[in-house]
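Input/output pair, single chain:
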Amino acid sequence: MTTTFLKRQKEMKRVEKSKMKEQQRAQRKLDKAAKKDSGQSGPEIDMNPPELDIFNEVPDFNPPSR
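Output:
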């Protein structure tokens, strides 16, 4: 195989990879726009977390005696 052929093959692979990345970027952009249109901007967050009773719990603390 000649060097020219290998260079051409390498260039074709580079162009193909570039096109594939461009398609992926376009798809992500479309997905992001669709998600924004549907009202979701990220993962769902539960706005009503379970009640925590951390302020009413007092641990038993006995200081060491001397």
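Residues 1 and 7 are 11 Å apart (CA to CA). The helical segments are 3-37.
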